[in-house]
Amino acid sequence: MVAKINKGSSLHGALSYNQEKVKEGQAKVLFSNRIMLNRDGSLNMYLANQSFEPYLNANKNTEKPVLHISINPHPNDEVSDDVYSDIAQTYMQKMGYGDQPYIVYKHEDLDRQHIHIVTVNIDETGKKINDSNDYYQSKKITRELEQTYNLHTAEKKTQSEELHKLKRVDYQSGDIKKQIGNTAKALIKGYRFQSVNEYRALFSLYGVTVEEIKGEAKGKAYNGLVYSAINDNGEKIGNPIKASVIGKSVGYDALQRRLEYSTKYMKENKVFDSPKLIVRSAFDNYTDKQNFLSDLAKNGMSVIFRGNAEGRIYGAIFIDHQNRTVFNGSKMGKEFSANIFNDLFKNDSQEQQQATTRHSDTSDKETFTDIQKDSFVESAEHENNNNSTLIPSLLEQHGTDYEAEAFARQKEAEYKRRKRSW
After folding, report:
1. Confidence of residue 286 (pLDDT cuts 50, 70, 90)
2. Cα separations (Å) of 355 from 237, 307, 311?
3. Phi/psi at 388 (5° precision)
């Protein structure tokens, strides 16, 4: 179980975020404490705000008096509404917020259910509740709750043992934002890469592409990322999704930090030794392109070829799923450069022509054949049979809800504008 405490200044934003989920049928109110309700027991936003108001008015000096807490059980845990309610009540009591007004929401918009709690850290006398030890206290309480309700632990070792493989984004199944969001959050933290091209190549395995957007607004330069679903031919389908809609964790700044970390890590560690052996072995066993790609896949590797309109390969990006690293073949040595593969596959022009896919933002082409897709599945199955998986669990991703934070800021700004016009 993972608990995350987000502190902010916008009560209206935190409540609006959860209520929007309720309206969309993606959440419901489990219960509330010290909150005025309608006569039928339902939650009323006006009355909810009024219930918190005396606490907030009693102390205007605390910058972030609003707490938006998320509690996320392990994906394998099945938790009833009654148990969720007990968990929330026990958690709040032991954290020192048991006598505070708070609302507990159950969310069902992600791959698994989890709960959100909105409260304030100012008591009825105007005194700020001591939260200096919140992190350690919260961790201790969640461990106790896991034992009490026989839930899976969220220790890193256990997470590593129970990693979950992501699936290729399926446009036909709908909820593309959710699918792409889950994929992006897992891949950006789960793999190491040193360029946007390598990042994009990794995403192509999962039916997603990513573009870097640059521009200027109000005299200031800005950078951003846009994610899109792609079909089997690599063509974008549906509406693109801005990284800001998914969350900070998959945005431009987060990617730059990941690139910086990855570059340092891959420079200081011998990440190419194992891939070299695997690719050399595939060369030695080479009979045709399909055989080559299958040989890589059985050893936990994939490769994405980049080619021009004439079908010439000018780039080869390898993905080592065992060590979760993405890199250009030339970084392993000249014998793994794009020219080598172009010469190797030059007699396979018909298959290459069918496999070449077009990116709408460039005249260059990137190849991802059916063979490679099949091989990647083989790779995943091979990894699973050896008690290992390709992608890290999303367990920790649900802790910090950046979407909720962004929504809260937006709603707070709208609320202030309306107040000024009254």
Report:
1. confident
2. 18, 10, 10
3. -140, 155
Tokens for 62, please give them: 């605390």
Report the candidate in 318, 414, 374 with the shortest Cα–Cα distance to residue 17. 414
Q: Check: CB of residue 393 under 8 Å from CB of residue 75.
A: yes
Strand, coil or helix: 231: coil
Q: pLDDT tens, 334-373?
A: 999 989 998 888 766 544 454 444 333 433 444 444 334 4
Angle at 29 between CA 26 and CA 35, to 5 degrees: 145
Q: Which H/E stretch holds residue 420?
A: helix 402-421
Helix, strand, or coil (residue 242): strand
- Residue identified by tokens 């937006």 is 410
Asked whether the CA dihedral 10, 14, 15, 19 is positive or negative, the reply is: positive
- pLDDT tens figures, 61-90: 999 999 999 999 987 899 999 999 999 999
For residue 27, pLDDT beyond 80:
yes
Q: How many helices (H) and strands (E) does the chain have?
A: 15, 13
Go through the domains of the chain in sequence order and give each one's CATH number.
2-158 (3.30.930.30), 171-268 (no CATH), 273-385 (no CATH)
